[in-house]
Amino acid sequence: MRADPHDDAAFDIPRPSLSIEGTSARFPVRRIFCVGRNYAEHTREMGGDPARQPPIYFTKALDALAPGGGAIPYPPMTQDLHFEGELVIAIGAEGVAVSEAAAVRLIYGFAAGLDLTRRDMQAEAKAAGAPWDMGKSFTGAAPIGAIVPASALAHGFETRRLETTVNGAVRQSALLGDMIYNPRQIIADLSRYDRLHAGDLIFTGTPAGVGPVGNDDRLTVSIDGVPPLSIRLVKD
């Protein structure tokens, strides 16, 4: 049935939200930003040069969000779906062109996330010099777990480890300190390009070890001090 454009209720679509660890409150999501090329070894594994190619930014649509993980539909139009485990920043205050020192005040909390990528579509777009949005943004492309307050990672941030397992085998393992841009630097730099608002999410990039996954594969992203995220890929 088609929506009636004169019926406001027909377009009253609720905003997606994320659970917050230890409370019944929810974190309403506004936008999804992502950082590419933020780990040197991953940049090299993708054929790039971290010395010449600094981190970049891209976005995902809100309907890419998959709060809490769980069963994720394997997307159409790809034969090469890749996983990328990441730390995600939840923004809790507005800021534009902020300093690194001020950037700390914008961080509400952190979560574990997955940047699922139709790698074959992305590669074809890159080769053609075309945008690669469709390789990165599709239904279920951004699973994310529960948010923990920023204070939970206030001490020893750089020594905390991110691991991604596929069917129980470790495929990614790196320290958060291996990031090229840390969260403060990401926020300060990204806020020069656009005003950040409460409800924004920033996927901070993935370490080396990414690769293809298929039907019924089970993935878990674990980060010290952050609730783990688990998904299972399901083909129709």
UniProtKB/TrEMBL annotation:
Q: What are the record keywords, sorted?
A: Hydrolase, Metal-binding
| One term of GO molecular function | acetylpyruvate hydrolase activity
Q: Which residues cross the membrane?
A: none
Domain Fumarylacetoacetase-like C-terminal residues, every copy = 32-231
Cite the Pfam families for this sequence.
FAA_hydrolase
Query: What InterPro entries does the record point to?
Result: Fumarylacetoacetase-like_C, Fumarylacetoacetase_C_sf
Report the protein name in the record: Fumarylacetoacetate hydrolase family protein
According to its UniProt entry, this protein's organism is Hankyongella ginsenosidimutans
Question: Lineage from the top down?
Answer: Bacteria, Pseudomonadati, Pseudomonadota, Alphaproteobacteria, Sphingomonadales
